[in-house]
Design goal:
75% of the residues lie in helices and 4% in strands. By secondary structure, the chain is mainly alpha-helical. The chain has one domain. Helix 1 runs antiparallel to helix 2, helix 2 packs antiparallel against helix 3 and helix 2 packs parallel to helix 4. The two termini are 32 Å apart.
Length: 331
């Protein structure tokens, strides 16, 4: 039966594509805002470099350093929120594709028998360990957690980043009048804003987990709806490592925030300098763990798509039934 290719592109009612387009525009808008903020911060940093070159006031240099740091970090966080918005659009498109496949796949299936159904239980596929069930698999614990936590994480990220930037402006204004207070506020700025960066990456991680959940449940629903044995890729090692790295990175960012809060209460200049020296690499290490987890999540998504593509090809490809002789024995 002939099938329009448009059926495979859009959902039957077309509603999801409108929402996805709006989210994409919002994500691109956030990216543009982040770029503009980063350019302003770079201009401020360049001005600070010129002051250093001219032997200018240390107070002016410190003032510029504080607010440019706050703006730069806010820009990075805004870009991450833009990524999260685009991922929301991608998830909606995944859900729309599931509905499209439910509609189109029956028209592509062969009319003749397609071979013996796979026995229920675990087996090794070409992509990796998998299992066959009679019904679509239930969501995994990480999928349920992602459904609950992605929005709070992004909301807390936005608040921490913005409040940190406001505090950076306040600290910059106190450099000349109360340097000790400015140092304390600078510690709060760094701890708070990098906690926000960690929350933003955790939110992105949870959104990737939601995309994986949509692929898993959607693939199962399609196969179950066709009356076929539901074949699902078992949770790969990359997915398990993704969860571990995400949690570890988030813990590190919480620890660095607590440490910066302690530093904010110190008065000894040497102790403050020592703390700033090792806290910088620590907060970056936490972000590195989160980013490494995101890489593994993307690798898992690619692997899942490979598995589901192979399964669709298997479903729509006619497979000859083995011939038998006059006595009914398979040849």
């Amino acid at each position: 039966m002939a099938t329009s290719t448009q059926v495979l592109v859009d959902s039957p009612d077309g509603s999801a594509s409108i929402t996805s387009a709006t989210l994409r525009k919002a994500g691109l808008g956030l990216a543009a805002i982040a770029t503009g903020a980063a350019m302003i911060a770079f201009a401020g940093a360049w001005n600070a470099a010129q002051i250093v070159s001219d032997g200018g006031s240390a107070t002016d240099i410190a003032t510029l350093a504080i607010w440019t740091f706050g703006l730069t970090t806010l820009a990075f966080g805004t870009a991450k929120l833009g990524i999260a918005t685009i991922l929301l659009a991608i998830r909606r498109r995944v859900l729309a594709r599931v509905e499209s496949v439910k509609f189109a796949l029956p028209q592509l299936m062969p009319q003749t028998a397609s071979g013996v159904a796979r026995a229920l239980g675990e087996y090794d596929s070409d992509i990796g360990p998998a299992f066959a069930t009679a019904r679509a698999p239930a969501p995994l614990p990480i999928h349920r957690l992602a459904g609950l936590m992605w929005l709070p994480m992004l909301a807390m990220a936005a608040m921490a980043l913005f409040v940190g930037f406001i505090l950076a402006l306040v600290a910059a204004g106190n450099v000349a009048t109360d340097p000790q207070l400015a140092v304390s506020q600078r510690a709060w700025v760094q701890g708070l804003q990098f906690l926000g960066e960690g929350f933003a990456l955790a939110g992105i991680s949870f959104l990737l987990a939601r995309i994986l959940a949509a692929l898993r449940s959607g693939g199962g629903e399609v196969q179950q709806g066709l009356g076929l044995t539901v074949e699902t890729l078992r949770m790969p090692v990359t997915a398990k490592a993704f969860v571990v790295l995400m949690m570890a990175g988030l813990i590190v960012e919480i620890v660095q925030f607590i440490a910066y809060a302690v530093v904010a209460g110190l008065t000894d200049a040497t102790q403050i300098a020592v703390a700033f020296t090792w806290l910088g690499p620590l907060r970056e290490f936490g972000l590195g763990l989160l980013l490494s987890g995101i890489v593994l999540a993307l690798a898992t998504i690619a692997r899942t798509l490979d598995f589901q593509t192979a399964r669709i090809v298997q479903i729509i490809t006619p497979r000859p039934v083995a011939a038998s002789d006059s006595k009914g024995h398979l040849r």
